[in-house]
Amino acid sequence: MNLIVDENISFAEEAFSQFGKVKLLHGRKITKEEINAADILIVRSITKVNKELLEDTPIKFVGTATIGTDHIDLEYLKKRNIFFKDAAGCNADAVAEYVFTAISHFAFKNSYSIEDKIIGIVGVGNIGSRIARLAENIGMPIIKNDPPLERKLGNTGFSNLEKILTADIVTFHVPLNPDGIDKTYHLMQEEELLKLKDDVVLINASRGQVIANDDLEKILNRKRLFVNLDVWENEPGINPNLLNQTNLATPHIAGYSLEGKVNGTKIIYDSLCNYLNIHPTWSPVLPKISDNEIKIDYDGNLTNALYKILNKVYPIKEDDNGLRKAVQMDSKDRAVYFDKLRKNYPLRREFSNYKIKVTNADAKFVKVLNGFRFNVETI
Which of 207, 334, 342, 349 is catalytic? Predict the structure, then answer.
C-alpha cells in the first residue's frame, strides 16, 4: 500500500509506515502525478483535494489532520465513494490558549482589566465553546453567535451578528462556508467593520476569508482597532500593508501546539486503522518539559497575573516579530517565508504541561488557572 502524507504532519513516518510505503511531500506539492500510484492521501489545510487532484487515481482514503474541511470537495469524495476523515477538535485547546494569550497581551499593554470587557464569540463549536468557558471563569460578559447551533438548540443565549459587533473583543471561530444560509465568506466586510467600537480587539483565528482583508486594510486607515490576525486571505501570499497595520500577526499557527498537531495525527491514524480493520498499536510519546514551573505572588490583579503566566508559557510576540520580517520581502519571497515559518515552527506546548505555584491566591484565581488546565499549587 502506498501513502502520500503532508510532510508537516507530526510523527507522520512513525505513525503511518506500518500501513505501507510512505512518501512525505510539501502540501503545496501534492499533485495528481504524485498520487497517481497511491492508495491513501493524508493532508493538511493547504492541499486542495478535489476532482482535479483525484480523478482517475486509486485513492481510497483521504484524511486531513486539521479541523477545517473547506479545502476538501466532500461531495466529490462521496460521489467517488472515497472514505474521508477530518480531525475536528484536535487543536481546540491550543487555539483557545492562543486567543487568551492575545487578549491578555492587549489588556496588559493597554492597562485595562480583562474582567471589564465584553467578549463576542462568533462560532461556538469545539473552540468557541472553550473560549466561552474560560471567559466565564474570568467573569467576562459573553455574547455568542452561531446560527447553525442556534437552529439546533433553539435560542438559548445566542445573539445576532449586530449584537456581537457591540462587544469589546470579537473573536472568530467559524468554518469557511462560501455560500448558503450560513455563509461565512467575507462575513466581515466594510459595513460590519465600521460598526465595531473604537479600540475593539478583533481576532481571527478561523479562516482568512472570513474577514475581507482589503476592507479591513481600508478601515484601519480610518478607525482605531486592535487587530490580531492568525489567518489571511490568499495564504501564503499575504497582504504586506495589512500585516503592517495589525497589532499582532502570526502565520496561521494558532493551533500549532505539539499536542494539537499530534492529536490530529492520532485521529487520522485511528480512523485509517478502523477503515482497514487493523488494531491500532501506535501511540505518540511526547517529550517532557524540564522547566515547567512558574511561581507567582498574586496581588489581586488578575489581568497582570494572567499576562505574566501566559506570556511566559507562550511568548506570542516572538511569532509576531517573526512574521513582520515578511513586510520588506517581495511577493514571491514573502509566500515562501510564510510557509517556512509554519514548517519550522518552534515547539510550543499546551498549558496543561505547566505547574503554577501561587502565593496569596484567592478561590477565583485558582478557578481561572484550573480552567486553563494549569496544574496549580497554592503556597
Answer: 207
Is residue 141 helix, strand or coil?
A: coil
**18, 123, 114: which is closest to 368 by C-alpha?**
114
Q: Does residue 235 have an active-site annotation?
A: yes
Rounded distance between C-alpha atoms, residue 125 and residue 242, angstroms:
28
Q: Residue 200 is placed in which grid cell?
A: 475593539
User: Does 151 qualify as catalytic in the annotation?
Assistant: no
**285 has a pLDDT exceeding 80:** yes
Q: Which of 97, 192, 233, 235 is catalytic?
A: 235
DSSP 288: P
Enter the C-alpha cell of residue 72. Answer: 476538501
In angstroms, how far apart are the furthest CA atoms of the chain? 66
User: What is the DSSP track for 35-104?
Assistant: TTT-SEEEE-TTS-BSHHHHTTS---EEEESSS--TTB-HHHHHHHT-EEE--TTTTHHHHHHHHHHHHH
CA angle 226, 231, 237 (to 5 degrees): 115
Task: Give the model confidence (pLDDT) of 87-101 as tens digits.
Answer: 999 999 999 999 999
Q: How confident is the model at residue 173 (pLDDT cuts 50, 70, 90)?
A: very high
Kindly indicate the confidence band of residue 210, based on its pLDDT and cuts at 50, 70 and 90. very high
On whether the CB atoms of residues 305 and 313 are closer than 8 A, the answer is no
For residues 311 and 248, the answer to whether their CB atoms sit within 8 Å is no
**DSSP code, position 211:** B
3-state DSSP assignment of residue 315: coil
- pLDDT, one tens digit per residue, over 311-364 is 999 999 999 999 999 999 999 999 999 999 999 999 999 999 999 999 999 999
Q: How many H helices and E strands in the chain?
A: 15, 14
**pTM for this predicted structure:** 0.94
Phi/psi for 126 (5° steps) reads -55, -45
Whether 349 is a known active-site residue: answer: no
Runs of H (alpha helix) within the chain: 12-16, 51-54, 74-80, 92-109, 126-138, 147-153, 161-164, 190-195, 213-219, 240-245, 258-276, 302-313, 316-324, 331-343, 363-371
Give me the phi and psi of 141, to 5 degrees please. Answer: -65, 140
Which one is catalytic: 44, 252, 334, 342?
252
